[in-house]
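Technical appendix A lists one of the benchmark inputs used to test multi-chain prediction within the project. The record comprises three sequence entries:
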Amino acid sequence: MSELSIINISIIILLLPLVSFILLIFFGKKFPKLYLAGTGIVFVALALSIAVTFGMLTSYSGETLSLSFTWIDFGNVPSIGPLSIELGFEINNVTALMLFVVNLISALVHLYSIEYMRGDIRYTRYFAYLGIFTFSMLGIVITNNLLMMYIFWELVGLSSYLLIGFWFEKDSASDAGKKAFLVNRVGDIGMWIGILILFTHYKTFTFSTIFEQISLGNLPFDSASALTTAGILIFLGAVGKSAQFPLHVWLPDAMEGPTPVSALIHAATMVAAGVYLLVKIFVILTADAMLVIAVVGGVTAFVAATIALTQNDIKKVLAYSTVSQLGYMVLAVGVGAYAFAFFHLVTHAFFKACLFLGSGSVIHAMHHEQDIRFMGGLRKKMPLTYYTFLISTLAISGVPLFSGFLSKDGILAGTLAFGSLTGHWLLPIIGFTVAAMTAFYMFRLVIKTFHGEPRDKEKFAHAHESKWVMTAPLAVLSLLSIFIFYTPNPLSADAGWFLDKWVSTPQTVVPAEASFDFMQSGMDKHEIGLAQESGIVHSVQYTEAMHHAHYPAMFLSLILAGLGILIAFIFYQWKKVDLEKLTGKLNSLYKFSLNKWYIDEFYHATFIGGTLKSADVLSWFDYYIIDGIVNASASVTQFVSRLSGWFDNFVVDGLVNFTALFSGFIGLSFRRLQTGKVQTYIVFVVFAVLLLLLFFRPF
Amino acid sequence: MIEVGLNHFLVVSSILFSLGIYGVVTRKNAVMVLMGLELILNAANINFVAFAKYGNFGLGGQAMALFVIILAAAEAAIALAIVLNLYKTFTNVNVDEIDKLKE
Amino acid sequence: MIGFPILTLITFLPIVGMIIILAMPKDKSIWIKYIALAATALQVVLAVILLGNYDYSAGGIFQAESFQFIEKFRWIEITGLSWLGTLKVDYFLGIDGLSMPMVLLTALISFIATISSWNINKSVKGYFALFLLLDTGMMGVFVALNLFLFYVFWELMLLPMYFLIGIWGGPRKEYAAIKFFIYTLFGSIFILIVMIGLYFSATEVIAGGERVFTFNMLALMDQANYNVDGILSPFNPHNLRFIAYIALFVGFAIKIPMFPFHTWLPDAHVEAPTPISVILAGVLLKMGTYGILRISYPIFPDITRDLMWYIALFGMINIIYGALVALAQKDFKKLIAYSSVSHMGYVLLGMASLTSTGINGAIFQMFNHGTITAMLFLIVGVLYDRSHTRGLNDFGGLATQMPAYTGFVTVAFFAALGLPSLSGFISEALVFIGAFGVESIRVLTIISMLGILLGAAYMLWTLQRIFFGKLNEKWAQLTDIDAREYVMFIPLTVIIIFLGIYPSAMLDIMSTSVNTLVEFVINGANNISISGL
C-alpha cells in the first residue's frame, strides 16, 4: 500500500461509522432492519483497519504518515501575518494499532448488542449512537492536531452522554449522562486552556510542528514552566475522560448505560482516550508535569482499588477496576514507561471489554439482576461465559501467560525504576499494593458470581447460556488476552514484537533542564547504539533501571497477586473467615470504601451545591437588586413626574384657575346688584349721582 | 316778616324731590311709584319757575314748566297703560315681583 | 456589480409589503400572511444574490471604495444657514464583511419568524404591517453608512417592537413593552448626543470644495477630517472623547444587553410572542455589538484600546453571570433569555481582544447566536403553543412523546452549549483563541471559560427536566411537530451543522474586513498617542 492509500483508507474508516449513524438516525424508523447495515459497516471498517494496521506495521513501521488541509483561513492578520487553522490526519504505529483495537471492540460490541438489546424500543437508535461514538473515537485516534483532538474529544463526550442516558426514562440514567458530560467538561476546560497556551505561542495546533518548535528550544512564552502548565492542563482533559482522581466520579455512574456500551466506551476505548492523549503529547511533558501525572495516576489506582473491594454491583466493581487500571496507565506515562502505558491500554481494552461483555451476559441471563449477592453458581449454567470471564480475570490480576501480566509487570517495573532514579518510592509501593487488591477484588467477583451455591434460586433456574452472537465476542476477546499475541516469552514482553517492533518510546523534546535526567538520550554514542539495539531509543539510563527492576518487580507482583487471589478464595470460596465480624471490626474503613470515600457527597455539598446556591443568590440579586434599581429608577421618575404634575396642577394651573375664579367671583358679586328691580337701579343711580357730585364738586 | 326768596322755593322743591324719590324707591305699588315720579317732575317745575322769576332768563323757565306738565301728562298716560298691561300679565302691580329684567 | 440598487431594495421591500397589507381588507388574513411571507422570502433571495456577488477580498470599514453595493446620494440639503453653512445628510448605504453576515442573518431570521407568526390570529393586519416595518428598520441599521441614517433606522425599529410586544404579548405585556421601549430609548439618547457631538467635530469636503459638517461614518473615521477645536476631535486637548465613548457604549450596551443593563431582556422575551422573541434575540441584540464594531471602534480607536480590559471584564461578567442566573430559572423562556445574556458575553469578550481571531469569533458568534437562539425560542414556542405552560418542572419524558421535536431540541441545545461540529463551538473557540492571546485579558478569558461548563449545566439540566424521565400523564396528548414547524427548524438546523463543519463559509466573508478593522483601530490608536493627544 502506498502512503496516500493508507491515509485515505484511514479516512474512509473514520467516515464509515458516521455513515452508519446518519443512515440509522434518519431511516432507522422506516427500516428497522437497518441496524444490520450499521453492524456490517463497522465490520467493513474493521477489515479496512486490519489492512491499514498490517500495511503500517510491515511497510512503514516507525514512520508517521500525515495529511493536512486548511480549515479556516484568516488571511493576513495584523501583527501576526498569514494565519490559518490546519486540520489533518496522521498515522503511525500507535495510531494504527489503536485503529485496530477500537474497530475490533466496536465491531464485537455491535455484534453482541444485536442480541443483548433485542426488543428495546429504541433499538436502531442504539446502533446509531454506537456509530457516532465509533466515529468520534476514531477521530481522536487519527488526528494530527490538538484542535481536532479537542473536537472529537467533545464528540466522544456527546456520544457517551447519549449512550449513558440511553434509557432516559430512568432518572438515574439521565442523571448519570448529565454528570458524565459535565465532569468531562471540567477536564475539557483545562485541556482547552492548555491547548490555547500552545496555540497562542506557536499559532498552530499541529502536533509535529509544536514538537519541532519545542525541540528547537522555542518554549511557550519562553518559559519551561509554561510548558509544564500546558502539559498539566492538557493532562486535565485526560483526567476527565480517563476518569482519574478527582474527576473519576462519573465513570461508576456511567454504568447506568447498557452493558455493551460500558464495555465499548467505559472500559476499552473512550476512557483510554485520555491515556492515548498522554501518549500523543508524551514528548512535551516536562519533569514536573510527569511527576504530577504519575501522582494522579497512582492516587487514582489506589482510591479506585480500595472502593472496588467492597462494591456489590457487578458492574460497579468492574467500573472501579477500570478506573484503577486507567490509573495504572496514567502512572505509567508519568514514570516514563511510555510503551507499557500503551501496551496496558491495548491489553486492558481486550480483557476489560471481555469482562464487561461477560458481566452483560450474566446480567442478561439473570434478568437484569446486577447485585452479586444474589448470584452464585453460574459456572455450570454458563460455562462459556465463565471461562472467558475467568481468563480475563486472570489477565487483569497479573497471572503469567496472560497479557495483563506482561503489561502490568512492565508498569510496575517502570515505577520501581522511577523510584530508584528519582527517589519517589511511594509510587511503586502504591503500584504493588494495588496489584494485590486487584487480584483480590477480581476473584471476589468471580467467586461470588460463578462459584458456590446459587443465592437466588428462582433467577438461577431461568439462567441460561447466551446465544452465539454474545459469546463469540467473549471468545475472541479472551483469546486476545493470551500472551502469544504480543510476545513469544510469557514472562517478559521486552523481546516481543509488540514492544520491540511496534511501539517504541519517542525521544522527549523538552529541553534538558526541564526534563528528568533519565529522559534524555544517552551519554555517548556507544550507549545510544546499545539502547537502540534493545529497541528503546529514548534513554539508556531509564532502560537500564527498567532492566534492573524487571525481575524484582515480577516476583513481587506475582507474590502479591497470588496473595490477593488466595485471600479471595479464603474469604469467599472456603469461607474460613467470618466476614461479618471482619467488616464489623473494620466498620469505618468498610463504610468508607463502600460509600466511595464520600467523594460524591463532598462534591454535592461543595461544588454543585455552591454553584446552585450562587445561581439562586444571583438570580435573586438580578430580580430584586438590578431589576429593582431599574424599577426603582422608573418609580423615582414616576414620583418626580407626579410631583411636577402636582405642581403643574396646583401651582401653575392653579394660578390660571385662580384668575378665572377671581373674575368669576367678582362677576358673581356684581351679579347681586343686578336685581331686575327698577327701584334698586334707581337707588344706585341716585347714589351714583350723589357720589359723582361729591367727587367732582362742580359747585 | 321773612321775605320769601329763591332759597325757599328751592327748599320746597328739594323736599318735594326727596319725597318723590322716596316714593319711587320705596313704594311697591306701581301707581304709587308713578305718583312719586309726578312729585319729582313737579319739584323740577318749581325750580324752573323759581329760577325764571329770580334769574335773568326771560320766560324760558315758565315755558319749560309748561312743557314738563304736558310731558308728564303724556308720560302718565303711557305709564298707566303699561301698569294696566302689567296688571293683565302678572295680576298685580307690585314692582318687587316684576323683575323680568333680570333674566 | 448588480445593475439595480439592491440594498435599497432589500431594505425597503418589507415596507412595500407593509403598504400592500395596509391596503387590504382586514378579513383576508391568510393573504396578508402570504404577502408578508413573500416579502421576507424575497428578502432572503436578495440576500443570497448579495452573497453571490459579494467580493470576499474587499475590506470596507473605512475605505469607501472597498465597500460593496454602495448607494449614495444627497438626502437632506439646506444651504446658507448662518453659522452652519450647509447642512447635508447623505443617503449612504453599503456593506462590508462586518455587515454582510448581519444582512444574511436578518433576512433569514425575518423569514423564519414570519413562518412562526402563522398562528397569530389577533388583528393579523396590524401585526404583519408592524412586523414588516420592524424588518425594514433592522435591515436598515446594518446597511446604513451615514450616522444620521443609522439613527433613523435604529429608532424606526423601536416603535413597531413596542406595539408588537405591547399588543400581542403575554400577561404582563404592557410592563414589558414599556420597559423595553424606555430602556432602549434611554440608550438612544446617548447615541444621539454623541452623534451630534461628532457632527460638529468633523468636516468633509463636498462637491465644489466646500468643507461641511458631516454625519458620514467613513469621514468621521478619518482623523484628518476633525477640526482642531471640535469637542470630540482628537486634536482638541480638552476633548470629551472619553465621555462620548462611554455614552455611546452605554447606548449600544443596553441593546446587547450588557450587565447591568440587561434586565429588560428577560421581561421582553417572556412577554413577547414567539416570533418577536425570535427577532429580538436573533437580530436586535446584534445591533448593539454591531454598532460598537461599526461606530465605536473605528471612530474612537484610542479609547477602545484603553478600555479593552473593561470591555473584556463586562464580557466575562455577562458570560458567568448570565449562565448562573439561567441555572436558577424555572421558566423555560426566561432561561433561554438569560442564556442569551451569557452568549452575548462571548461577543463582548471576542471584541475586547482586538485581535482578528477574537473579532472574527465575535461576529461569527453574533451570527451563530442569532440562529441558535432563534431556534431555542422557536422550541419554547412550540411547547408553549401545545401545553400553555413554560414551567421547566411541569414537564418530563417528552422525548418519547415528541421524538422529532426532541431531535431538533437536542441539536439546538448542544449547539448552544458549544459542542464541536455545531456552529456555536467555532465562534466560542475563536473568541477564546483571540482573547487568550492577549496577555492583559488572559485571566478574564480563563474565568470566562467556566461559562462553557455552566452553559452545559443549564442546558443539559433543562433537557433532562423536559424530555427525560417518566412521561407526565398530563402531556400524553401532545403532538409532535407539524410540517410548518419542520419548515422553520430545518433551515436553522442545517445552517448550524453546516457552519460547524465548514465555518469558512461564513468566516471568509468577514475575515478581510476584520483584519482591516483591527489594523485600522490599532494604527488609529497609535497615531493618536504618537501625536501626543
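The two ends of chain A are 149 Å apart (CA to CA). The longest strand of chain A covers residues 65-77. Comparable benchmark entries are summarised in Table A2.
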